[in-house]
Amino acid sequence: MSWVDRIIIQAISPAWALKRARARLAYNYYEAAETNRLRREKRDRRSANAQNRGAIDTLRSQARHLEQNFDIASGVLDVLVNNTVGTGIVPEPQVRMKGGEPAEEFNRKLSLLWDEWIHSPEVTRQFDYYSLQRLLARTMFRDGEVFSQRIVGRIATLDHNTAVPYSLEALEPDFVPLDMNDPATNVVQGVRLNAWGQPLAYRVYKSHPGDDSGRLSVDTKEIPAARMVHVKLAKRLHQVRGVSVFASVLNRFDDIKEIDESERVAARVAAAMAAYIKKGTPDLYEPGDHPVDPSTGQRALRSMEMVPGMIFDDLMPGEEIGSINSNRPNNALIPFRDAQLRSGAAGVGASYSSISKNYNGTFSSQRQELVESYGSYRPVSGHLVFRLCQPVWDGFIEAVLISGAADAKGIDMATVYDASHTLPAMPWIDPAKEADALATAEDRGWTSRQRIIRLRGDNPDQVNKEIERDNADREQLGMSRPGQGTPQPSSEPPPEPDDDEAAKPAARARKSHRRSK
Predict the structure, then answer these.
(1) What percent of the chain has pLDDT over 90?
(2) Contacts of residue 44, Cβ cutoff 8 Å, sequence gap at least 6
(3) 188: phi then psi, degrees, rounded to nearest 5
(4) What number of other Cβ atoms are within 10 A of residue 378's Cβ?
(5) 26 contacts 33 by C-beta, under 8 angstroms
(6) Which candidate, 142, 168, 129, 170, places its Cα nearest to that of 233?
(7) Alpha-carbon span 32 to 9, nearest angstrom
(8) What is the pLDDT of residues 442-491, one digit of tens each?
């Protein structure tokens, strides 16, 4: 504590003096907390919802613009969707009987009903379920969130088109108004919450607020949270609405887009090579040097067309030909652009090689990047399973039970919603090494064959059926099964016989010799 604090401020206000001393200690320990002319302190201490209120709509619009007009941004979304959803996150029922054994017949029936339902799962009948998964995931990455209403049971105005009365209504985030806040009913950005912050219901526009088809309506309806699927990207606690994955890299991507466009224009100008005629001093010209056009009585302008191997033979005294030199394409742009793309890839959680399509490097570096990027994709896939795929599966099971499409007699109802979801498999760089590693893990009992099949993105039951059918076809055709080819002669010497076995042939030979005598 300084003498000013001890003598003056402490006598007036001890609390003020103590506060000044604590602040001085904080600045001594954390230089980043000290504000100076080079570093300004960011003092925004608002909640996540308060910060997002004025930013989400702008971020969403810019992200959509980038996807529509910038190939790299569209490629980022493709990479994220391909590695988190792939061709689709497939559920596999895991229902058990009351005795604890797998309910094979019930699970088989659920799989058959599911295979029928996925062809026409949503109200517009324009997407299959796995295409809808990809589109919902893409919307979540680009806009920060996506909604889907689960419609279970018979409705007069909707034909479910399957034996299971169940449909999904996919909704862009624009359907849930951001500017709808009502402290009296605890509505925050279109979501009604309870005292603990748990969503109770969602206010939803009856038509898209940006629709120009004449069906625009500002009327809203309230959908209970039990029927609504809300998948969002959140980075703070108590955050009601999601933020685009491009939020932290929008400025960088916008700059890269501008640089690319400017360099392309400069390269086009350089490709259209131009030349000029450099004139001499006026005293080198004589009247009548330039021919006169008889029709106009004025000096005719010379026209020179650029052709390969052309020769300028119409130059006047003192003139010479000059060309415009260009330094395009700019070779220094490539490393700078690559560095910007690496930073952008880190911001969106995708791998640089996949975004830039630059796969140069050693096996070890590619493997390291693959493992690290897979560690980023896997949690997002898990988020989609818990917030999208499992709720959709729960609604499907509920519709099956209501309609009686499957007999649940003897089923342990505590397990009726259980299912495992097959996620996209991590690609192999060296298939032989990867396959050997999995085979070794299985042989040593570190994992199961079913888990390995699921890691490869397949359904174990379906694979087993295909193997069984393939083995039957092989037997019918007289072919050996995999791993059971024609036995090859062994290269090892035959085992040495023991003393008793070796003595028997010699004794028989001696007896035969005596009989012959």
Answers:
(1) 44
(2) 51
(3) -120, 115
(4) 15
(5) yes
(6) 142
(7) 27
(8) 888 888 888 888 877 777 877 888 888 888 888 888 888 776 654 444 45
- H/E stretch holding 71 reads helix 71-84
Sequence-ordered list of residues with C-beta below 8 angstroms from that of 370, at least 6 positions apart, any chain? 351, 426, 427, 429
What is the spatial distance between Cα 133 and Cα 87, in angstroms, rounded to a whole number?
9
Q: List Cβ neighbours of 249 (8 Å cut-off, separation of 6 or more).
A: 343, 344, 347, 348
Residue pair 205/173 in contact (Cβ under 8 Å)? The answer is no
The H-assigned helical ranges of 230-384 are 250-271, 333-348, 352-356, 363-384
Q: What is the mean pLDDT of residues 485-513?
A: 50
Give the predicted TM-score (pTM) of the model. 0.76
Length in residues, the chain: 517
Q: What is the pLDDT of residue 19?
A: 75
Q: Which token pair is 258? A: 């501008």
Q: Give the position of tokens 């400025």.
A: 251
CA end-to-end distance (rounded Å), the chain: 126
- Listed in order, strand segments (DSSP E) in 350-450 are 419-422
Nearest to 338 by CA among 400, 419, 256: 256
Of 137, 94, 117, the C-alpha closest to 384 is 137
CB atoms within 10 A of CB 240: 22
- Token code pair at residue 377: 């994709």
Token pair in block for residue 181 = 């806040």
Angle, CA of 89, 92 and 97, to the nearest 5°: 155
